[in-house]
Amino acid sequence: MINKTVNSVVEALDGIQDGMTLMLGGFGLCGIPENSIAHLVKLNVKNLTCISNNAGVDDFGLGLLLQKKQIDKMVSSYVGENDEFERQMLSGELEVELTPQGTLAEKCRAAQAGIPAFYTPAGYGTEVAEGKETREFDGKMYVMEEAYKADFALVKAWKGDEAGNLIFKGTARNFNPVMCGAAKITVAEVEELLPAGKLDPNEIHVPGILVQRIFQGEEFEKRIEQRTVRPR
């Protein structure tokens, strides 16, 4: 039976070096690979390009890497919750590539599927389309977007098995699944790691063939980015 389990986050992230491009799953602070991000901080790798829907908050998620100036370039869709991100962007310390959210997801999915590029109407006629090929289909203009190229994809799942099969929960399913297999190496940290064959095949969201390393995460904080409640 295939076993892709590694013993720790240290072993899981072996090979990450300065200057690499990393994909990091999550939506807001939901479903982010907390253990992997914390270890990247310890590794102190520099000059990273990070592809992620958002950049965390000042003291959590990718915000921890921004604090230590480990990220040179952020490719994101939404970055409004991080003051340090804003400061670095406006000062020119951080290169930022803002991408429509659906386009970002599809650029990951295209990489996962081995598709080099695709056409989308999102961004046509705006700065997003500058320098890119455009084409008309049925009277409507589209922008050609190339699939992402990344060295590592770091994702977080609710459950996984030793063969690398993954199940996601709730909003964590927004970006984590499309990043699996979209990089040279996919690392999955999971809340619950089961023996191979113990997951119901009908409930698996990502097959193990798209995952190279999997490990049992620890002490997930699962911080809430914005808590909104109605008055009593």
Automatic annotation (TrEMBL):
Keywords: Transferase. InterPro entries: 3-oxoacid_CoA-transf_A, CoA_trans_fam_I, CoA_transf_BS, NagB/RpiA_transferase-like. The keyword Cell membrane does not apply. It comes from the Bacteria. Pfam families: CoA_trans. PROSITE patterns: COA_TRANSF_1. GO terms for molecular function: CoA-transferase activity. The keyword Oxidoreductase does not apply. SUPFAM superfamilies: NagB/RpiA/CoA transferase-like. Belongs to the 3-oxoacid CoA-transferase subunit A family. NCBIfam families: pcaI_scoA_fam. This is Succinyl-CoA--3-ketoacid-CoA transferase. It comes from Croceivirga radicis.
